[in-house]
From TrEMBL:
CDD domains: SLC5sbd_NIS-like_u3
Alphabetized GO MF terms: symporter activity
Entries under PROSITE patterns matching the protein: NA_SOLUT_SYMP_3 (PS50283)
Domain of life: Bacteria
Entry-linked Gene3D superfamilies: Sodium/glucose cotransporter (1.20.1730.10)
Transmembrane stretches, start-end: 6-28, 48-70, 76-100, 120-143, 149-172, 184-202, 233-255, 276-299, 319-344, 379-400, 412-431, 438-458, 464-485
Taxonomic source organism: Streptococcus danieliae
Family: Belongs to the sodium:solute symporter (SSF) (TC 2.A.21) family.
Name of this protein: Sodium:solute symporter
Entries under InterPro entries matching the protein: Na/Glc_symporter_sf (IPR038377), Na/solute_symporter (IPR001734), Sodium:Solute_Symporter_SSF (IPR051163)
């Protein structure tokens, strides 16, 4: 046990880690990337590196601290959200990746322009993504910095600025290749840190895993009040969480540029499939460990050490941070905190690069054609710098606000924004007759419906896990009906719908030509 909390040795370990990440990022950016290489890489990054990068991007501090906090304070009900990957990954592999690979898209929203023949739709989708990503990066900077500030006494503004600065530097200099390799390193640190924390926790608990299993069997896995299924599909239940999460994750695989950008690094479908399966296994496995840690923290603090009052004032999102500081050996604390910073920085650097890519290729280039590679790269670098600074400022503001559970707040926000984008993508994938007018109608009507649900109805009227289900359903129905009413004889471009997938898969010779 470490009664001193965060020590100077831990601070040294944390700073050494940040310096190492910065050096690694600059090393992988030593080859000057220009034009498409800055955005899509040079084809030299192995699939497993990209897969761990995808995992590290999706596993933010919101997961690192929020998941453990949720199972500490309650049950494993939100663990079932991870099972949504069992829906999302097969759907993405079967219906999305072949289309994206065959089209050789530059960004996610390049698909929308080519599918619906609309530059403006591409711009609108990119703006929605950028707004979503700005919110995501801000909360991801705030969450670990808030906990670390409480433990160390270091001003939270300094911690947020430091985290943002390191990510900005290597995102600015090296493009996607630098981001992928640094994400890979940080993903490994993440996995190692979580396993160390679980090992120490099991050692500290009387009875080890058996004590955790006892609590899980007595209401900590699924509480008696939590429903497996509710006939009211808009009310909270395990079935809704699994299905709603599956649609949200699938929407992100199809329409979120930070994830789709990983898919654009190769046209090899076998590599893309390996990437997705590995990402799914890592995500589900590590999420399960977080939930075990959360229940273990409950056993340790609330069952076996109840009444000491030490953790009474610790917020649920920060309980894992508290354990890291006061129960882990000196030095190990620094390593685990480095892992939390790794979760944050991998997500931030990806966000900066994807926003810069989307702004440059989806907005700037679409509005002013024929830009040189040098100008594209320069614009992307300036945008990543400005967006990084903006996110740091918003994060500092957010750090002084009151968000009960960052994970739940963020999932509601993500379901709203990604559901709107995902609905338009799925409309394009599924219906050959879907046209530009249908796509616009789908986006407008689903936006109105979702804003009304989120802000016009009582907070508990519609469970946030239903957001994607509602917005995608509205998009498909409205988009198809309007497309039929305004229809013409022009068919969807080749290789842009799921109906073209058999032909795509039967002729993979195009993979070798690129």
């Amino acid at each position: 046990m470490n009664t001193e909390g965060f020590t100077s040795i831990d601070l040294f370990v944390l700073i050494a880690y940040l310096v190492a990440v910065l050096i690694a990022g600059l090393y992988f950016s030593k080859k000057e990337m220009k034009g498409k290489e800055f955005f899509k890489g040079d084809g030299s990054v192995p699939w497993y590196v990209t897969s761990v990068s995808l995992f590290a991007t999706m596993l933010s501090p919101i997961s690192f601290l929020g998941l453990a906090g949720n199972s500490y304070a309650g049950s494993w009900i939100l663990w079932f959200a991870q099972l949504g990957m069992l829906i999302a990954i097969p759907l993405a592999i079967r219906f999305v990746l072949p289309i994206f690979a065959r089209m050789d898209i530059d960004t996610a929203y390049d698909y929308l322009e080519r599918r619906f023949d609309s530059r403006f739709l591409r711009v609108i989708a990119a703006v929605l993504f950028i707004v979503y990503q700005l919110g995501r990066m801000s909360i991801i900077m705030y969450l670990p910095s808030f906990g670390l500030a409480a433990l160390t006494g270091i001003d939270i503004n300094i911690l947020i600025i430091l985290m943002g600065a390191v990510a900005i530097i290597y995102s600015y200099t090296g493009g996607i290749k630098s981001v992928l390799w640094t994400d890979f390193i940080q993903g490994i640190v993440l996995i190692g840190g979580v396993l160390i924390a679980l090992f120490v926790l099991l050692k500290d608990i009387d009875g080890g895993f058996g004590a955790i299993a006892h609590e899980l069997a007595n209401g900590k896995f699924v509480a008696p009040t939590e429903k497996i299924f509710d006939p009211n599909i808009l009310s909270g239940s395990i079935a809704l969480i699994v299905f709603g999460s599956g649609l949200t994750i699938f929407s992100s695989y199809a329409s979120s540029q930070d994830l789709v950008q990983r898919f654009t690094t190769t046209q090899n479908i076998k590599k893309l499939n390996k990437m997705m399966f590995t990402n799914g296994a890592l995500s589900l496995g590590i999420a399960t460990i977080f939930y075990l840690i959360g229940t273990g923290l409950y056993v340790f603090y609330k069952v076996q050490n109840a009444g000491n009052g030490a953790v009474d004032d610790v917020a649920q999102d920060q309980i894992f941070m508290y354990f890291i500081a006061y129960q882990l050996p000196v030095g190990i604390t620094g390593i685990i905190l480095a892992a939390i910073y790794a979760a944050a920085q991998s997500t931030i650097s990806t966000g900066l690069n994807s926003v810069a890519t989307s702004w440059t290729l989806d907005i700037q280039e679409v509005l002013s054609k024929d830009m040189s590679d040098k100008r594209r790269t320069r614009i992307a670098q300036v945008v990543s710098l400005l967006v990084g600074i903006f996110s740091v400022v918003v994060s500092i503001i957010m750090a002084h606000s009151d968000i009960k559970s960052a994970y739940e707040w963020f999932n509601g926000f993500m379901g709203l924004v990604l559901g709107l984008l995902g609905g338009v993508f799925i409309l394009g994938f599924v219906f050959k007759k879907a046209n530009k007018q249908g796509a616009y109608a789908a986006l407008i009507v689903s936006t109105i419906v979702m804003v009304w649900i989120k802000y016009g109805l009582p907070a508990d009227a519609v469970n946030y896990w239903a957001y994607s289900l509602i917005s995608i359903t509205v998009s498909l129905v409205v988009g198809y009906v309007v497309s039929i009413l305004t229809g013409n004889k022009v068919s969807a471009p080749k290789y842009t719908t799921i109906h073209d997938i058999p032909e795509i898969l039967s002729d993979s010779s195009w993979e070798q030509r690129h």
